Amino acid sequence: MAVGRNTLALFVMLLATASTSALAQAWGEAPKVVTARATMQMLSPSVEVPGTVISRYDSRLASELAAKLVWIAEVGTEVNEGETVARLEDLTFKLNEMEAQSLVDREQARVTFLESELGRLKELSERNLSAKSRLDQTVSDLAVARSDHRIAQAQLGYAQIAIHVTEIRAPFNGMVTERLRNIGERLNVADEVLRLVDPNSLEVVSRAPLSTVHFIKKGDVLALGNDYRTSDAPIRTIVPFGNPQSHMFEVRLDVGSDLWTVGESVRLLMPTAAAKEVLAIPRDALVLRREGASVFKLTEESTVAQVNVIVGLGAGSLIEVFGDLAEGDEVVVRGAEGLSDGMTVNVASKLLSSVD
Question: Residues 275-287: pLDDT tens digits?
Fold first, then answer.
């Protein structure tokens, strides 16, 4: 009985320490693996630089008048271009409009009278019944009256503009993200009232080393990501003017609003040399052990052969390798833990490409 208990304990210990692949092989089951093909890829060495997701339309809307704030949209309100997001008290400006309208009416009446008087004096002058000096004076008075009428119309226009801008309107579609003043506060000209952001027009702004500026161009697609997600994004614009203190230049990339949010930090992979064609495999295929790096290559007999490799430059999920590998060879990218040379495997799936 003691021997039986010792045997059982030894078997349990073996179960606890053996790898999944080894156990599967011991029970006559080939371990399941996922493979990908080694491919020729254009790769270049790269450096990781920080970036930030921003909106191309992010504005702090300000008051154009000195007036009291009577209404402001709530944070989180979505508005379309032209919709009111804040309103100022307009009573004083309506009174100014009434006064300006009265001046316009008065000057118009004066112009009308002088035009009539000028016509009457011209008829009298033709019959030599009116002095020429009086006719000249009327012509001069009419010119002044017309000028005063235009000035009054301009004043009315200013008054109407003032009434119009008592309502602060959205210059673009967006969302109110911050209220900078509260209802009842007295505002001065240029006082900021609220922040409006368009969450659908996002881009990543990054400052990269000047050593990379010659290896990128507008339209190139760069890999970016953080601890939560990854994606690719095209370069929208490059500002190739380096800061003499930091030796950095600015790059902006278009990104989708369905994946990223304003203010999120990301990391970009920027090339530091011209791309070259190399034999590349997914980084996940590498098996790093004390004796060096290797990969498990799938053979025609559904077994794996361990191949020692030397790694070269890497870019994103790919890495250059040197060794007994050729384009089209299938290498194990998942399930390589516990594999050994010559072991039979069961290919559960194959990645469509080495970058999947």
Answer: 888 999 998 899 9
Number of other CB atoms surrounding residue 73 within 10 Å:
21
What pTM does this model have?
A: 0.68
User: How is 79-141 classified by DSSP, letter by letter?
Assistant: E-TT-EEEEE--HHHHHHHHHHHHHHHHHHHHHHHHHHHHHHHHHHHHTT-S-HHHHHHHHHH
DSSP string across 266-309: EEEEEE-S--EEEEEEEGGG-EEETTEEEEEEEPTTSBEEEEEE
Distance CA 316, CA 272 (A): 14
Residue bearing tokens 């072991």: 343
Stated as kind and residue range, the H or E segment containing 53 is strand 46-55
Residue 321 has pLDDT above 70, yes or no: yes
Q: How far apart are CA 308 and CA 38, in angstroms?
A: 15
Q: How far, in whole angstroms, is CA 230 from its chain's centroid?
A: 14
Cβ atoms of 214 and 200 closer than 8 Å: no
Sheet arrangement for strand 78-79: 58-62, 192-197, 174-179, 78-79
Q: Which of 277, 272, 268, 267 is nearest to 216 (CA)?
A: 272
Give the span between the Cα atoms of 230 and 56, in whole angstroms. 21
Distance CA 329, CA 310 (A): 16
Say what the alpha-carbon torsion angle 75, 81, 86, 91 is, to the nearest 10 degrees: -170
CA angle centred on 286, ends 283 and 291, rounded to 5°: 145
User: Hey, how many other C-beta atoms are within 10 angstroms of the C-beta on 298?
Assistant: 19
Q: Computed from CA positions of residues 310, 314, 319, 322, in that sequence, does the dihedral angle turn out positive or negative?
A: negative
What's the confidence (pLDDT) of residue 47?
Answer: 85
Rounded CA-CA distance 190/66 in Å is 9
Which domains, ranges and CATH numbers included, belong to the chain? 20-44+276-350 (2.40.420.20), 46-56+201-271 (2.40.30.170), 59-88+166-200 (2.40.50.100), 90-165 (1.10.287.470)
